[in-house]
Amino acid sequence: MFRRRTALSVSAAAALLAATPLLTACGTDAHPGAAAIVDGKRITVAQLQSRVKDVRAAQAASPDGKQLITNTGRLSLSTLNGMIFDEVLARSAADAGVTVTRADLQKGRATAEERAGGAARLKAMWLQQGIALDRVDAVVRNQLLLNGLADHLHADRATPAGQRALVQALAKTSRSLGVDVNPRFGKWDDQQVILGETKDPWITPSAPQQERV
Length: 213
What we know:
The chain is mostly helical.
């Protein structure tokens, strides 16, 4: 799975404002301004809002902007889900000694672009899933980390058993990081490594994969 802003027209800007969730700066009483805390590290509401706005701006500038926005209506939740998962995966990979070099990333992106039918198509696919255009490398890196972690575990991502082994390893890390999510955004499930009712786009057997974030 591998999933410039331009000036917005008046209608596109209106759609952007209507579709972007209104996120206030208040967090939990214990962690004001935080959307989530992962291993003591704050993911702030401001950071979440900024990433959501980047996606909405890119979507609104697309010829299919209205449909893209409609199809990613729960963007703030899915984006936070991804931000938390990034931290869990990074720790799991580090603990397993899995690394991704610049050369690995370049090769991985080239492969993803080839499978998607070109760089433009790859970006379009991920924008459909609510992934900002400047996050494509990060998504590719995550896939490489997942592949490396699976190899470390001798788990085949193409099989249910392999995916279960991978999820179990990530779940163990997730519990150790003490993920604490602002109740406004739902509750983090350590067992499934996922936020509330969002769908996890990372634990998939192949790439690229078109799936809602």
